[in-house]
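Deliverable D4.2, example record:
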Amino acid sequence: MGFLLLSLASSVGIFFFFKVFHLKNISLFKAVTVNYLACTATGLIYHSNMLESQNLSGSTDWVPIAIIMGGTFFFTFFLMGKTTAKNGVSIASMATKLSLVFPTLISMLWLKTVTPNPYLAAALIISIPSIILASMKRERVKKMGWSFFLPIAVFVLSGMIDGAINLLNYKFSESNNFVFFPVLVFFFAAISGIIFHLFRRGERKQWLDKRVWIYGTGLGVANYFSIEFLLQGLVYFNNNGALVFPFLNVGIILVTSILGILFFKEKLIRENYLGLSLALISLVLLIISSGV
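Output generated by the structure prediction step:
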């Protein structure tokens, strides 16, 4: 459970940096590209002893998938930004968090790593409405039109990423070299971001903003450890994505909402309080079902 709590804390750190980007009017896409570079550097430093010992035995079949996932990471983030602009923050948030459906189904139907029990079933059922209600905002949503497909794309791609992480960790976690899986993913996400910005020449001055580099690096450290500890948490819970991903997604919404009220004076509506209450119940049931 300790690894999941550390992953949760790191994910909350990501929320903090995104809030800072908004409040300080920092270029989000620039900072995210710097974030992926910082993720890569953080991973190499964190596992530097593995590089020095050259103890990198094991299958490398995961490498091509990690390269593809790197591009998918950045593209999904790009779509999240578009979804937020076109459909609103709440819809973008729901599309991302509801992606827990993918690793949950994979664990239950494919990997068979789930031990069914009434507490887990109740937690999963409650987690869906808790995320929807907690994410609601009284914001005016523009007429969707073609943008109706944006949150669907974010939901599917986020779910595919979470599902792939669950599957790859199940298959390759015993390979020594798999510790560099997140490093490789973030490296190619950074490459994708750099290529993306090469075609946006009018924004080059924003790269001179030192805040992009400072806060982007801080985001990268938090982002890296959110994945590092997620992978270790999956190993601890026998790659039970039906427990791990709901715990994290519901926990992130619960903790970030509380911090938003305390530190950023965010206002919640009635539906949010109901959603957070359900989230707390879901978390308690998940902890009971895990047996810790």
